[in-house]
Amino acid sequence: MERNFIILEYDVEQYPFQEMLCKQVFKVPRLEHLHVVWKKQNKREELNYKDNLVLRKLMQRLPDESLFYKIYHKWIANILAPHYANKISYSAHPKMRVHLAGTGTVSDFHRDVDVTKRQDQINCYLPFTDVFESSTLWCQKSYNSTEYNPINLKYGQALLWDGGWLKHGTYENSTNNTRVSCDFRFHAKVPEKVKSPWRDVLSGRKVQSVTKDE
């Protein structure tokens, strides 16, 4: 990947997001097979966008004192923040995502900056399952490119990237893999203390204009 994409690696035993979600939220043996269990519970062979929303709400309703948020904030403090002088401002409540196998797109293609108007934020994509092909997010290969690539990651990896200026979205999930993930934005409070390659995530931008909300 280019310098605008950095993959973080972490120990899933120390930060057991998947185990926690399987046992305490979705009650399934394997998170990537959530669609199989959901079909059986609802006695349906076809799932749709609304099913993704229903399951996502289970994550969104987790209280601040839940195990998920204890793991999340610990992950931020120990895995992410040290690369940014241990001084960052980040989303206390990340965006929760579920993209069930066999369901259509869950996100139209867009640039975050067109909505947030924030120029200083870095995106972090943190999946709790392996994500690949049409079960993951697709992103512009480079600024102003018409070519899009899937962001393929393993559970135990996270991606730092410029989702503010790189257009991204999803396609129909035609794999047999359900994606469960979260994503959030952050910025360094003392950017002058951040070293390469961490300071380079937003460095590939060219002069562009921020459009109106879509």
Structural overview:
This protein is α+β, with helices and mostly antiparallel strands. It has a single domain, classed as q2cbj1_9rhob like domain (Jelly Rolls, Sandwich). 23% of the residues lie in helices and 20% in strands. It contains five helices and nine strands. The strands form two sheets. Strands 1, 2, 3, 4, 7 and 9 form a six-stranded antiparallel sheet that branches. β5 and β6 (148-150) form a beta hairpin. The longest helix has 14 residues, at 67-80. It is globular, with a radius of gyration of 17 Å. The two termini are 29 Å apart.
Low-confidence stretches: 209-214
CATH-assigned homologous superfamily = q2cbj1_9rhob like domain
CATH fold field value: Jelly Rolls
Task: Tell me roughly what share of residues is in helical segments.
Answer: 10-25%
Rg over CA atoms: 17 Å
Number of strands: 9
Beta-strand share of residues: 15-25%
The figure for the number of domains is 1
**Strand and helix order:** EHHHHEEHEEEEEE
The CATH architecture can be given as Sandwich
Count of separate DSSP helical elements? 5
Text of the CATH class? Mainly Beta
Mind describing the biggest β-sheet?
Answer: 6 strands, antiparallel
Q: Report the structural category.
A: alpha+beta
Q: What average pLDDT do the residues reach?
A: 94
Tell me the span between the first and last alpha carbons. 29 Å
The backbone outline, from C-alpha atoms, is: globular
